[in-house]
Write a structure and sequence with these properties.
Elements (H helix, E strand, L loop, with lengths): L1 H13 L1 H6 L2 E16 L2 E2 L7 E2 L4 E16 L3 E12 L15 E11 L5 E8 L21 E10 L2 E11 L10 E13 L2 E12 L5 E14 L2 E14 L2 E15 L3 E10 L9 E2 L31 E13 L2 E11 L10 E15 L2 E12 L1 H5 L7 E11 L1
Parallel strand pairs: 14-16
Antiparallel strand pairs: 1-4, 1-21, 2-3, 4-5, 5-6, 6-7, 7-8, 8-9, 9-10, 10-11, 11-12, 12-13, 13-14, 14-15, 15-17, 17-18, 18-19, 19-20, 20-21
């Protein structure tokens, strides 16, 4: 927190020329500590090299952000957001370590829009959430979240329009990278269809070097509400190549929910294709790309990185999700998941396991909110055979979210 406050004058000075002529200036920030407990513990959360161990582990992470937002003449906007993300106790002595090791530019972009805000052009580092974040999302649950470097062009009027993205995800010119990589996407949204909106996706991933990627993802997502019922239906197909393998993969998902007044009940099913034979020249494993998987596959985050954490066997998620609002400021969620592989291959079973999630949130006011939850994972033999989990797991969290 102290480091963020020290940097705030630097941020303001950097934007001083723009702030001096701005018609509207907003400065804000966020402090979000979150304590978690896992038993068995999980090492390297959010990475592809995660391993489960026998012991329990408790830790607290924290996000601290500060931003300045300047609206200038001619429909120009400049936005800069800095953040520090750390584990409490990662510095053994703050007297001896005063470097900004965890400090980063999370967002920094310039916008040019039309007078009626129908057209928008954006250049710089930015968060992106397309549709339901099934394929491209900012992953706000992660303290560091995700942002991209590149360009965005959008035309949207009355909920109908199109967005085009061009992002550089790696550049061999940088000393930390060995290859060039990028993602290019087109997203169309058509409003007022079957009580909701239809989203159309076309995403292309490319990477050169030792693990080349030439991958296209195409599909649609329809969501809406009819009377007391809400629904979702989506399907995506992937083709191209990755790491020298031909890709033939797909995903389908559906849900239907009922509004019960103070709460909702939703039936949910997702199917992500997998591969029976991981040794041939074709992969049939669906890749969730840049998705916010925390939203979909259980709060305990067993399946953040797909297909790595499913062993290439795909994933089926059958779930019942419910919410209950006890007051305007308090919400309780109860989710029940059953996880299965879509292809068994050399596994003795398709059963990954079951997960029970109970989460509660309470908003004190518009600046301060509290949330906490508990998850229990009933381990299946397939997780043990993949080296993921050899017994049942418990996960707990408590989070404070303060913004200004």
């Amino acid at each position: 927190m102290i480091r963020i406050l020290r940097v705030m004058p630097v941020l303001i000075l950097a934007l001083a020329p723009a702030l001096a002529i701005a018609q509207e200036i907003t400065v804000g920030g966020q402090i979000r500590p979150r304590s978690e407990y896992r038993n068995p513990s999980l090492s390297g959360a959010g990475s592809t090299g995660r391993e489960f161990f026998n012991g329990a582990d408790g830790f607290t992470t924290m996000r601290a952000r500060i931003h300045a937002d300047a609206r200038l003449k001619g429909n120009v906007r400049i936005f800069a957001q800095l953040q520090d993300v750390r584990i409490w106790g990662s510095e053994t002595s703050t007297l001896g370590d005063f470097n900004a090791d965890n400090f980063d530019l999370h967002q920094g972009f310039v916008d040019l829009s039309s007078e009626d805000d129908v057209w928008l052009g954006r250049a710089g580092r930015q968060e992106v959430n397309l549709g339901g974040q099934r394929l491209i999302g900012a992953v706000d649950w992660a303290q560091q979240a995700r942002s991209f470097d590149g360009l965005r062009l959008q035309r949207m009027k009355d909920g109908t329009g199109a967005t085009f993205l061009a992002f550089q995800t790696a550049d061999a010119t940088a000393p930390t990278q060995s290859a060039d990589a990028g993602v290019f996407a087109g997203y169309g949204k058509i409003n007022n269809i079957l009580g909701g909106a239809l989203g159309l996706y076309a995403i292309y991933n490319t990477r050169n070097g030792s693990l080349p990627i030439d991958l296209g993802t195409f599909g649609f997502r329809q969501v809406g509400k009819i009377d007391r019922f809400s629904y979702r239906l989506e399907s995506y197909y992937q083709t191209g190549s990755t790491a020298g393998l031909d890709v033939q993969a797909f995903m389908v998902g559906a849900r239907i929910g009922m509004n019960l007044g103070d709460g909702t009940v939703t039936l949910w099913y997702d199917y992500l294709s997998g591969d029976d034979d991981l040794t041939d020249n074709t992969t049939k494993v669906f890749n969730t790309l840049f998705a916010t998987n925390h939203k979909f596959y259980g709060w305990a985050d067993l399946f953040l990185v797909i297909p790595v954490e499913t062993g290439g066997r795909g994933l089926q998620d059958a779930a019942i999700k419910s919410t209950y609002r006890t007051s305007e400021s308090t919400l309780i969620r109860l989710n029940l998941h059953s996880f299965r592989a879509t292809k068994q291959g050399t596994l003795s079973t398709k059963r990954f396991g079951e997960e029970i999630d109970l989460v509660g949130s309470w908003r004190y006011n518009e600046h301060l909110a509290f949330s906490g939850g508990a998850s229990y994972i009933i381990q299946g033999d397939a997780l043990a055979e993949l080296g993921r989990l050899d017994r049942d797991m418990t996960w707990l969290y408590l989070m404070v979210d303060a913004t200004f």
